[in-house]
Design a protein that fits this description.
Layout: H1 22-35, H2 41-65, H3 67-70, H4 82-87, H5 93-108, H6 120-144, H7 148-159, H8 174-193, H9 199-216, H10 225-230, H11 241-249, H12 261-265, H13 273-283, E1 293-298, H14 313-316, H15 330-343, E2 347-354, E3 357-364, H16 377-394, E4 398-401, H17 411-421, E5 444-447, H18 453-456, E6 464-467, E7 481-483, E8 487-489, E9 508-510, H19 511-522, H20 537-546, E10 550-551, E11 555-557
Parallel strand pairs: 1-3, 1-4, 5-6, 6-7
Antiparallel strand pairs: 2-3, 7-11, 8-9, 8-10
Length: 559
């Protein structure tokens, strides 16, 4: 039987839970256009605060996930896997809860509505009340939640996340977030009752509170150790990500909300806290572990560029598909593309661990269409060359190139080579065409270039399109079948994998990626970068099967 207040009342609503914000919006709109009542702007303020709190957590999570900025500052070197992402999917439940609780307090205390925009005394008062009441109250209650019953039935959920993330801050039970609302609410309500309340104070306190919680759960050390050397007292007034991470690894220490002073007073300070912080801060300028394998990928198009795991973690953890919420962001993505074209270098996008080997995905900051611009070829080749040279300097054992990053020969030469690799009796069945109209009677199309629906219309009924093209062609013909790009499923013991590779399912990677994985697991030191060596196909296939990689069915029909 579940413990009281251990689950959320809207668990079964899914995304429809956001409709619970509807009454606040409706009340504000009604008062705005029917009652002309300025007091009801508090409904709007609550909605804005909820939106800002969501944005705060998303911003921190994006920053934390930008491995090209944070990889050398990471505290826990493991990756965030699909299981943790799914468990933390409803991390924002507490924001909805606090919004509902805030609106109830508003209706019970209507005399506090007429707050000024600014009151300096209120800022002082809320800080004093936080230090005097919220910090010791949270410390006391947090320690109690590490008792046997409360931990097993409530607080263990928060500690179940193996890698701390800003979203982990919201991953807790209903009871814990009711208590957290009280811890936050006491300074705000107390300041208002003292007559020093203001709109600025409420916004500022809540957002700073959330910012500090995200800081503690960010899994990368952003606070320089020199700051505490210059101001030694400050280390008792402000915790660090390292400090809070020790609470999750050695749970009987470091219980404080934001101020280690209370752990000192309660004799629960972990003696390694500041030593570990200094070590991580000093080593942040050094390169971390050298990857065993690097997959050099590229961006496909503007919409799929937003599929990177550090932008929208939940979206990136599912196969890519165009969503409506992406469309308003396209202008921003376009500007980012131009900036990347002008200034960006190859960057680290994601990583996972497989049987003790570190596998990373680096991204060439170029979009698919740029590979077909003649004047962009030199710049792309330079990006690829610099990435390979850098990997070589680091000591990377295996490099694999994504589709458009591979060296291409002229189409005629490429066709002739492919034709010669086929058995002699079948070579006559491979025909190169320079115009799509010439393939009207052919029911097997091998496509190495993106084709339009009009060009597909030349294929006869029953045609199968074998795709070797990025992005995949549109499944336009209902009377035909389409193959996906060749892909394989990674072994089940992969660790820290939390993002999908373009349109592939979870745990599935493109064949060019899978080839590099096989090379890495076999200990082969030659790279997977060129054309297929038909003499080694059986050897590579046997190695893939031996290590648990599985082929993925590629056939799909549009009807």
């Amino acid at each position: 039987m579940e413990a009281p207040l251990s689950t959320w009342p809207w668990d079964n609503l899914g995304s429809f839970k956001y409709l619970l914000y509807g009454p606040l919006l409706a009340k504000w709109l009604y008062s705005r256009y029917q009652e002309d009542n300025i007091k009801e702007t508090w409904c709007l303020h609550i909605l804005i605060i909820c939106l800002l709190r969501c944005s705060m957590h998303h911003t921190w999570n994006t920053f934390s996930g930008m491995l090209f900025l944070t990889r050398n500052r990471q505290i826990n070197k493991e990756g965030v896997g699909f299981k943790q992402i799914d468990n933390e999917w409803d991390w924002d439940n507490f924001i909805l809860l606090h919004g509902i609780m805030g609106s109830l307090v508003f209706y019970m205390l209507k005399d506090l509505i007429n707050l000024p925009l600014w009151d300096f005394k209120g800022l002082m008062a809320v800080a004093i009340l936080h230090i005097a009441i919220s910090e010791p109250l949270y410390y006391f209650l947090h320690k109690k939640f590490h008792g046997s019953y409360l931990f097993n039935h409530y607080h263990s959920l928060h500690h179940s996340s193996p890698v701390l993330q800003p979203f982990t801050a919201g991953h807790a039970t209903l009871l814990e977030h009711i208590i957290l609302a009280a811890v936050m609410g006491i300074p705000i309500l107390g300041t208002c009752l003292l007559g020093y309340g203001s709109i600025t104070m409420i916004y500022g306190y809540i957002l700073i509170f959330d910012c500090l919680r995200c800081l503690g759960h960010s899994n990368f050390e952003i606070i320089p150790h020199q700051l505490f050397q210059a101001f030694p007292t400050l280390k008792y007034l402000l915790y660090t990500p390292t400090y809070h991470s020790l609470h999750h690894t050695e749970m009987e220490t470091n219980y404080c909300l934001f101020m280690p002073l209370f752990d000192v007073l309660g004799n629960t300070l972990n003696p390694k806290s500041w030593e570990m912080h200094t070590k991580l801060s000093v080593e942040s300028g050094k390169n971390g572990r050298v990857p065993d394998f690097v997959f050099l990928a590229h961006v496909v198009d503007l919409t799929s560029a937003m599929h990177v795991p550090f932008l929208f973690r939940s979206f990136g953890s599912k196969p890519f598909s165009t969503r409506l919420f992406l469309l308003p962001l396209l202008p921003i993505t376009f500007v980012v593309m131009l900036v990347m074209w002008a200034y960006s270098k190859v960057f680290l996008n994601s990583f996972y661990n497989l049987r003790g080997r570190l596998h990373q995905t680096w991204v060439v900051p170029r979009f698919g269409f740029q590979y077909f611009l003649p004047f962009a070829a030199e710049g792309i080749n330079n990006q690829i060359e610099q990435a390979i040279l850098r990997a070589d300097r680091l000591g990377v054992k295996v490099i694999s190139l994504a589709a458009l990053n591979k060296m291409l020969t002229s189409s005629t030469e490429r066709f002739q080579k492919i034709q010669k690799e086929a058995p002699a009796e079948y070579q006559k069945y491979l025909v190169q065409v320079t115009k799509y109209e010439a393939a009207r009677n052919c029911k097997t199309w091998i496509v190495g270039k993106w084709i339009t629906p009009r060009e597909q219309s030349y294929a006869p009924k029953g045609t199968h399109f074998h795709q070797f093209v990025v992005p995949p062609i549109l499944s336009f013909r209902r009377d035909c079948t389409y193959g996906d790009l060749a892909a394989m499923r990674l072994p089940e013991d992969v660790q820290g994998l939390g993002s999908c590779e373009y349109t592939m399912e979870r745990g599935v990677v493109h064949a060019c990626h899978a080839g590099g994985v096989v090379h890495s697991l076999e200990g082969w030191t030659h790279h997977e970068v060129g054309a297929i060596d038909v003499d080694r196909i059986d050897l590579v296939w046997e190695a893939a099967m031996k290590h648990g990689l599985k082929p993925v069915s590629s056939l799909k029909k549009t009807d």
